[in-house]
Amino acid sequence: MNSITISNLRKTYGPIAAVDGFTIEIPSASVFGLLGPNGAGKTTTFKCMLGLTRPTSGTVLYDGRPLTPATLARIAYVPERNVLYDWMTVENHIEMNRRAFSAFDPARAVELLESFNVDKRRRVRGLSKGMRTAVMVALAFAQNAEVLVLDEPTSGLDPVNQRHVLSLMINEAVRGNAVIFSSHQIGQVERAAEQIAVMDRGRLVLQGLVDDLKGDRKIVEGIFPDVRFTLDGITSDPRVARADRTERIVRLLVTGGAEDIASRLSAAGATGVRVLDLNLEDIFLYAVSPTTSTDIVVKESSL
Amino acid sequence: MNYVEWLRVRNCLRIAAIILAVLVVLAVILRVSVARYMSTEAWIAHMALNAGSKETHTVLPDGTKRMMLDDPADRTHVIVDDHGYAGRHIVITEPSSREHEEHSHVNVGSIQVSESRHGDLTTTVVDTNGAVPMMYYMAIADLAALVVATILAAPLAREIDGHLEIALTKPISRVRYALGVIGVDVVGILAASFLTIVALYLCQLLFESPRLDFSGINARAVAMGLALPLAWYAMLCAATTWLSRAYGAVQGFAWPVAIFIGILAAIQPNNTVALFVHDVAWVISRLDPLSYVSMAQPALNGSISYADANFAFRMSIEVLLFVVYGALAVWQWQRVEA
Q1: pTM
Q2: Chain A touched by B57 (CB under 8 Å)
Q3: Could you read off the pLDDT of A221-256 as tens digits, one per residue?
Q4: Torsions phi, psi for A15 (to 5 deg)
Q5: pLDDT per residue over B282-293, tens digit each?
Q6: Crossing angle of helices B217-242/B174-205, nearest 10°?
Q7: ipTM more than 0.90?
Q8: How close A90 gets to chain B, by Cα (Å)?
């Protein structure tokens, strides 16, 4: 499978749009991170991708074709919540997947479960939350799928196993498969994903390669001697994507020419002006939280 | 085959088999307990005989043990031909009394009793180990099958309740998935029926050599006995799929509601309000497969005849209900979203 194309995806529940005109392209042989605050529409997007729910409008295409039952044979899915059968053993789940998916590798599933320290003979009802997540992850990665859709695949796992899951995801991408996953742990996304998309209130608010997003964006921060100050038109510069002010401190998110903006800020009377690199968490927070109660948004434009 | 549903069916059948095995064990205990009362000698020994009674034992050329009892005082003559495991043929000749009928023939399970009057004497012929009407077997098997059908009747609702992400991401169409699940349950219900018949047969085998009568009404009972639990299952399956959040309530209240509506539909009302309630209940009861199960037909003289005039109609309705309810369940399954 070469790519997954999601075009103008929209899903409404009554008057509420859970996903609103979402468009992305997920290439093969890559790890794609989908970020967003709670209720942003990540899980609904995944459900639309897998046919679990019908989009109100828009399309999801796999290699240019709509989803069919046959396509599902090539897709592995880890839902965000536990959907395993409590009364069944882990071994039963392996057998269930073996029968359902022709490419499923039971030996690989057992091997993965052992790496997560999960006893396959145990019933699911006796497993902890993390172990259940580990079972779902092991089943998905043993499926030999070309596309892995992982909705918070590290939820409940300890740091060692979280790292293990990230390694598995990267390995799948190396093998040529497409991995799309969501996580609230941005550090994990930064570590594993080559590309990200940030959703907020159903909409795509940011998309791109992680390195590009981080390289392009800087924070220029300065402190004015008094709370009364002017920025002398700095905020109208097209390179300034956003400006936040807290008392005497000004923070400017700039998408290029950070040194030049810093000089202009100094000229406006700011002291201690410095240029800061952004990590993915900063980028994410700027993308999804345009303001807080203490911040005054001077300017906001599309990131 | 749907593996998860197969596991559910297997668990259900395992419990059914354990219960039936307990029944067989109880039958074994009963058989051992009554063993010493089962020979003809033991039977005679427990009778209160008059002083002049004469008891004769012979063995016929075919090995049959014949016991003759003659009681001149009571003018009673009894011949018991004991064929061992193959049963007994008993002929009793005694003075007629008011309890004796002119001519009668009664079947109770494998025991056939016929009575005929000749002047002031009555001859009663008792044959044990006759063919047991399959209808009796099916009545009990149906009960077991209906219980199993009720337990299994929420396969799709159980998937909707927390497992849709697994069920709907399998590489088969939703229709095929639903039909597969229903198919597994149908096999399970029929297996429950079969297991019950086997258990009953074993129980009977402990006491005599069973022979089953499949003729006439019994054949119809077998057909109805297979169709009824499937139609009942399909009805509950549709209800649980449509009311998936309350599938447990549907399963739990299905029997009380069906019985209550059945009673309301059956009783003859004597006032307008009751008549209205009766009519509403009657209409609702038409949707219930249990309403079409009766093999009996009340005759004008108040007796019951096992007429088969409307059997084809009843069977057609059962099959139709199975198909329609099954289709409703599948249709709803196609509409569900996670």
Answers
A1: 0.85
A2: no
A3: 999 988 888 887 888 888 888 888 888 999 898 888
A4: -80, -10
A5: 999 999 999 888
A6: 140
A7: no
A8: 12
